[in-house]
């Protein structure tokens, strides 16, 4: 093969790789946008359920919220799966595996950028020992950093780690998962196995796996104000 032929072959391989990379990037962007919209629909469902429970609203907004979730699930089958599994038994069955962490020494600004890039509203905080040290949410950044006029480029993620951290073992039953999230009103629950973070469960994960009645109970309890 001549030098020219080799150069052409290399150029074609590079173009093929570029096309594959662009396609993967578009797919990832679509997935991130879909997850953000799904989380928004779950929050709307929570608001509607609480309004109905408190007597300030009717069941119609709840029904519309469920219909919107179902329509979104049908439009995004690759992200949401073929349906809510009936044989879910453990936390590992519904968690997002391989949750990305923010280092306890990383700045809040860097954490916010990672949340934006990943399309998530929270990140586990991991130490140098690769163990879970806390969890950082977008609300923490707003309420405990921005609102207090602290510099996100100077404040470290570890500084905002909550004193009490709730989590479950990967082998915990779904009942224990719901107990932790409902009792403590948390929307993001880390999953631990052999003292290491292996995943995280969010309200969106529950929406994919719970039936409508149980999901309504969850959002009602978590979103109800104290």
Short description:
With 226 residues, the protein is an alpha/beta fold. The chain contains nine helices and seven strands. Strand 5 (168-169), helix 7 and strand 6 form a beta-alpha-beta unit.
What are the defining features of this structure?
226 residues, alpha/beta, 4-stranded mixed sheet, 3-stranded mixed sheet, 9 helices, 7 strands
Explain how this protein is built:
The protein has a 4-stranded mixed β-sheet. A 3-stranded mixed β-sheet has the order 2-3-4. The protein is of the alpha/beta class and 226 residues long. 56% of the residues lie in helices and 13% in strands.
How do the helices and strands line up, and which of them pair or pack?
Elements: H1 3-54, H2 60-75, H3 77-80, H4 91-94, E1 96-97, E2 102-103, H5 108-118, E3 122-126, E4 132-137, H6 138-146, E5 168-169, H7 174-184, E6 188-193, E7 196-202, H8 203-209, H9 212-223
Parallel strand pairs: 2-3, 5-6
Antiparallel strand pairs: 1-7, 3-4, 6-7
Shape: globular
In helices, the fraction of residues equals 55-70%
Helix and strand sequence: HHHHEEHEEHEHEEHH
Q: Can you count the beta strands?
A: 7
Report the C-alpha radius of gyration, rounded: 21 Å
Q: What oligomeric arrangement do these chains adopt?
A: single chain
Counting H and I runs of at least 4 residues, what is the number of helices?
A: 9
Main beta-sheet annotation: 4 strands, mixed
Overall mean pLDDT = 79
Strand order of the largest sheet: 1-7-6-5
**Spans where pLDDT lies below 50 across 5 or more residues:** 79-86
Q: What gap, in angstroms, lies between the N and C termini?
A: 75 Å
Q: What portion of residues belong to β-strands?
A: 5-15%
Give the structural class.
alpha/beta
């Amino acid at each position: 093969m001549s030098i020219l032929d080799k150069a052409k072959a290399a150029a074609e391989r590079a173009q093929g790789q570029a096309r594959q990379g662009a396609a993967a990037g578009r797919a990832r962007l679509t997935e991130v946008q879909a997850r953000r919209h799904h989380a928004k629909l779950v929050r709307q469902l929570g608001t509607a359920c609480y309004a109905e429970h408190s007597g300030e609203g009717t069941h119609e907004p709840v029904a519309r919220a469920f219909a919107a979730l179902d329509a979104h699930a049908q439009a995004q089958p690759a992200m949401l799966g073929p349906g809510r599994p009936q044989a879910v038994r453990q936390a590992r069955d519904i968690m997002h595996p391989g949750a990305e962490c923010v280092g306890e020494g990383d700045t809040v600004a860097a954490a916010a950028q990672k949340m934006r890039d990943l399309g998530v509203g929270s990140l586990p905080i991991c130490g140098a020992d690769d163990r879970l040290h806390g969890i950082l949410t977008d609300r923490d950044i707003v309420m405990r950093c921005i609102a207090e006029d602290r510099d996100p480029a100077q404040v470290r993620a570890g500084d905002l780690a909550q004193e009490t951290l709730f989590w479950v073992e990967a082998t915990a039953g779904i009942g224990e998962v719901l107990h932790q999230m409902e009792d403590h009103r948390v929307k993001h629950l880390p999953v631990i196995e052999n003292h290491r973070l292996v995943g995280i469960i969010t309200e969106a994960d529950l929406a994919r796996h719970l039936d409508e009645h149980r999901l309504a109970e969850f959002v009602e309890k978590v979103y109800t104000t104290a």
